[in-house]
Amino acid sequence: MVIDRLKAVVNLDYLVENYQALKRLNQGKDIYAVVKADAYGHGAIECSLHLEKNGCKHFAVTILKEAIELRNAGLKSEILIFGKTDPLNAIYLYDYDLVQTVYSYEYACELNRLGKKIKVHLNIDTGMSRLGFLCQRDKDILPVVEEIEKISKLENIEICGIYSHFTSADSDLNFTYEQKRLFNLLLKELKIRQINYGKVHLDNSAGVITLEDGDYDLARCGIAMYGYPPVKSEEAFLPVMSLFAKVISIREIEAGASVSYGRTFVAKSKMTIATIAIGYADGYMRILSNNDFVYYQGYELPVVGRICMELTMLNVTGVSIKEGDEVEVFGRNKLLEPMAKRALTITYELLTNLAKPRVDKIYIKK
Ligand SMILES: Cc1ncc(COP(=O)(O)O)c(C=O)c1O
C-alpha cells in the first residue's frame, strides 16, 4: 500500500552508532537499551532486534505486554520491566523469562506466591519519589536493607540486580552526586550483611554523558540512543528518525482571507497555502500553531493558522511544491530540540507522540 499521510524513516545504523557511543562513554560496559513506549516511537521490535544483532544484550521496557511482544518477535536477551506487573500475571514473567522490578516486600511476597522462580531487580528511590524503596536520607538506609534482606529469603524470588534513577543528571550535579552517595551507601550496607544484589545500574543518558565514569555494571539509556543527548557530549549522536508528512492540497488565497479555525492567521497579500496530512491527533501539538515550520528542499515553510486534528496549513508562497510532495516535520534538516522548546515540552514527549504506531515506518541502513 502506498503511504498516504505520514512516513517515519528510521536509520538503524545510526541507532547502533549511538548505542556504541554510549558504551564508549560508559567505559565499555553494556547499557540497557531502553525501548519502552515503542522505543520512544521508533519501533521497539525492529530497533531491539537490530541492536541485539549488534551486540546489545540488555533491554528495558515499562510493561509486561511490551516485553512479551519482544520475546515473541525473537529477542533472546535479558528484558527488564520497569513498571509493575500485576501479580496475577506473574506466570508470564516466568514463562517468558523476564526480569521484574520490585519495590516493596509486599509486592515481592505476591510474586513469590506463584511458586516458580521469578527474577527481579530492586528499584531504589534516591530522589525521584516515583517508584522504589524510599531511600532519600541516610536514616532510610537501614529499614531498606532490612526489607531487602527479607526479600532475599523468599524462596521463589531471585534478586538479579539493583538500580536507582537520576532526577536531574542533565542539570543538577550536586543532587546527582547526592543520589549516588545514598545509592552507594545502601550497596555498602547490603554487602556488609552479605546480601547478594546482583548487577548494579544507575546512569541514564544524561548520567552516562555527564559522569563518564562507568562506575556500575550497566547503564540504562534511551533518549541519547535515539540521537538526542540531553547534555553536550564529545561523542556525535545522530538523530535516528525523520518524520515526513504529505502535501494533500494546495490553494491560492487572496489578501484578507483567513486560515483555519479561529481565523488566527489572515493573509496580508495573495499567498499560496499547502495543506499537509498531520495534526494534533498525530502528536503535532496545537501549541505549535503559527509557531513552527517544516523543511522542504532548502525552505523552512511556516505553519499558518491553527493546527487541526489531522491537518496543518503551510505558507508555501513562491515555493515550487505540489500535491504528493513530502515535507520534513522533524529530522536532519528540521531539528527536534528547538521544536520541543517552541512546544514547551521535551524531545521525549514529541518523539513518543509524533511517531505513534499508525505512522508508517521505513527502516533503512546507511
Ligand atoms: C527507570 C529508567 N531508566 C532509564 C531511562 C532512560 O532515560 P533516558 O531516556 O533519559 O536515557 C528511563 C526513561 O525515562 C527510566 O524511566
Keywords, separated by commas or semicolons:
single chain, 366 residues, alpha/beta, TIM Barrel, Lyase, Ornithine Decarboxylase, Chain A, domain 1, 2 domains, nine-stranded parallel β-sheet, six-stranded mixed β-sheet, 19 strands, 25% strand, binds pyridoxal-5'-phosphate
Describe the structure.
This protein is α/β, with parallel strands linked by helices and 366 residues long. The chain folds into 2 domains: 12-221, Alpha-Beta Barrel (TIM Barrel), CATH 3.20.20.10; 241-364, Beta Barrel (Lyase, Ornithine Decarboxylase, Chain A, domain 1), CATH 2.40.37.10. It contains 11 helices and 19 strands. The protein has helices at 12-25, 36-40, 44-53, 64-72, 90-95, 105-112, 141-152, 173-192, 205-211, 336-342, 347-354; strands at 6-11, 31-34, 58-61, 78-81, 99-102, 118-125, 133-134, 157-164, 199-201, 219-221, 241-253, 258-259, 265-266, 271-276, 293-296, 299-302, 312-315, 326-330, 360-364. Strands 2, 3, 4, 5, 6, 7, 8, 9 and 10 form a 9-stranded parallel sheet that branches. Strands 1, 11, 14, 17, 18 and 19 form a 6-stranded mixed sheet that branches. A two-stranded antiparallel sheet has the order 12-13. The structure holds pyridoxal-5'-phosphate. Pyridoxal-5'-phosphate (PLP) binds at residues 34, 82, 165, 204-206, 220-224.
How much of the residues is beta strand, in percent? 15-25%
**SSE order:** EHEHHEHEHEHEEHEHEHEEEEEEEEEHHE
Q: Termini, distance in Å?
A: 24 Å
CATH class of the largest domain: Alpha Beta
Can you give the mean pLDDT? 97
Q: How many helices? A: 11
Number of strands: 19
Kindly identify the CATH topology of the largest domain: TIM Barrel
Rg computed from alpha carbons, rounded to a whole number of angstroms? 24 Å
CATH architecture of the largest domain: Alpha-Beta Barrel
Number of domains: 2
SS-derived structural category: alpha/beta
Instruction: Name the poorly predicted regions.
Output: none
**For the record, what is the CATH homologous superfamily label of the largest domain?**
Alanine racemase
Residues in helices, as a percent range: 25-40%
